[in-house]
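Record Protein kinase domain-containing protein, 477 aa.
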Amino acid sequence: RNIKSNSYAKRTHFLHVVPQEAQDIGNLLNVTVHLGRNILYNPGVMDTTPPPKPVSIAAIIVPVLLGIIVILVVVMIIVCKRRNKKEETAVAYSANPVNNYHGNSIRNNERLPLISSASISEQLSPQILQEMSSVLISRNKLMVDKENIIGKGHFGTVYNGEYITSEISKLNGNPIKRKVAIKTLSKIEDTESVEKFLKEGLMMSDFHDENVLTLIGISWDDDGAPMVVLPYMMHGDLLQFIRKPSNNPTVKDLVGFGLQACKGMCYLASQRFVHRDLAARNCMLNETYVVKVADFGLARDIYEKEYYKPHEHAGRMPVKWMALESLQQQTFTIKTDVWSFGILLWELLTRGVTPYPDVDAFDVVNYILDGRRLRQPQYCPDPLYELMLSCWHPLPETRPDFVTLVRKIEQIYGEIHGVHYPGSQSYNYCLDVNYINVMDVHPYPSLVRTSESRSTGGSMVQDVFSWSVKKTISHKS
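=>
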C-alpha cells in the first residue's frame, strides 16, 4: 500500500518466507528467504523436532503406589508367618519372668503324653511308689484352676489351685481350704522323665524350715498324670519382685531378703543338701514377704536365657552363678553354693541385674581366672561387699560357711537404718534405678598360667594358696 509522508511517498513491502526445495537433514530443514524478486537470503536451518510432551503426574504416582503396595504385602506375609510360629511355640514356652508367676496372659494348653498316662503309675519303680505313699493326696481334695496359669516352661506348667486339708475350721466346721501351686508335666515323654519330676518333689518333702519351700504332697490327675502340690507364693520369685519398678525396697529390705535366703541355705547345708542352682530366680516370696529357698525346676524353663552350655556335650547350666571349680571340673559342694550365694547378694543389691552384664557366658571362666570379680553395687555397704568377695575366693576351703555368713549378715543388717517393706513412701536409701557393672575389680591374683609358671611346673591352685598365705602373714604382722 502507499503511505504519504510530507512531499513524497514510501512504498512498504511485506516479506514472506517460502521454503524452496527445502532439504531434509534429519530433524533440520534448510530455510531460504526471498525478498522481492531479486534478493535471496539463506539464514540457516529450522529444527522441526516436536516439543517434549509434559510428564503425566499419574505416570509418577502409579509406580510409587504399586511399589508401596508390594512392600506392604510382603511385610504382612512375614508378620503373619512369624505370628503363626510364635503361637505354635507359645503352647510350649513363655519367657516373661515378670508376668509368668501371676501370668493370666499365658495361653493354656493340653498335656501332650507320649506314653499312656493311665499306665504311668504302673511303670514307676517300687521305691518311688513307696516314697510317694506318705505324701499322696487324693484327687478329690484338689481343685485345679487350669485357666489360671502361674508359670509355664518347656517341660512344666504350674497352675493355681486349692487343697482341701484335713483341718476343720472352728468358725463353720468345714474343712479348711488352702491356696496352692500345682506343678504338672507338659510333655510325658518317658518313665525316666516322670521319675525325675517326682524325685524333685519328694526331695522337698524332707525340708522343714521357715526359709525353705516344703512339699505339700503329690497327686494323680484325672488322666493319670502326676501333680506336685506346693505352697502358693503370693509375690512370686525374688528376681521378678526386685526388678518390678512399682516395688521400692530399701537397702535394709534387700539385705533382709539375703539374710533369709542365707538362713534357708544354712538349713540345707545342715541337711548336707547341695543346691547347685542358687539364684534370686529360685527364691520365692510368700504373702508376708518371707523368702523361701526353692528349686521349682521351672526356673530353668522360664529364665532360659540365664542358662548356657559350657561346651558342646554339656547340658544348659547357670554359668554366671557357678563357682570356678564347678565351671572347670563340674564339682558341686556346699562351698560352691556359697559362691552362688555371693552372686545372689549382688543380684539383690543391684535390683536384679544379670551378673557380668558385659561378659559373654563363654568368657566367664577366663574373667574369673584373671582375678576379676563383680564390682561393688551402688548403695551396697562396704562390709557386705567384703563378704561377697570372700564368697568368691578361688580356694573353696577359704570361703566362709553359711553359719558364718548368717552371723555376719545379721550384724550388717542390724546396723542399716531404713523403713521396712511395705511402709511409707519416704524410703531411706531408695533404689529407684538399676546399677550396671562398668569397671573391673581385681581382688584376687590372676590364675592365668604364664610361660614362667608353666616352665617351673607350678599349678594355679598352688599359686593362689601361696598368695593367700602371704596375705594372711602380712595381715598378722
